[in-house]
Amino acid sequence: MGMVLQAVAWYLYPPLMYLLAFSAVCAISYGFELVSLVTGKGHYEIKDAIASILGGTVGIGLFALFLLAR
Q1: Angle at alpha carbon of residue 35, lines to 44 and 62, rounded to 5°
Q2: Which residues contact 58 (CB under 8 A, 6 or more apart)?
Q3: How far apart are CA 33 and CA 44, in angstroms?
Q4: Distance from C-alpha of 47 to C-alpha of 38, rounded to nearest angstrom
């Protein structure tokens, strides 16, 4: 998720690509958990949101390394 969002942010607005990608990762990760809480389907766990944000951040970092290597 992090790599895809970073690539989209890089395409749309390169000066703020890290901030846009990280904000989108946080919003999607926590938003998914909020939907689980509101609908009652699935399990609402803040640990899942944190793990998803950390995974997205790793993806953002990998894409940043790709951009630096170009």
Answers
A1: 80
A2: 2
A3: 5
A4: 17
3-state secondary structure (DSSP) of residue 58: helix
Mean pLDDT of all residues in 4-20: 94
User: Distance between CA 56 and CA 50 in Å, rounded?
Assistant: 10
- Alpha-carbon gap, residue 43 to 16, rounded angstroms: 33
Quick one: average pLDDT of 38-55?
94
Q: What is residue 70's predicted lDDT score, i.e. its pLDDT?
A: 85
Q: What is the DSSP letter of 14?
A: G
pTM score of the predicted model: 0.90
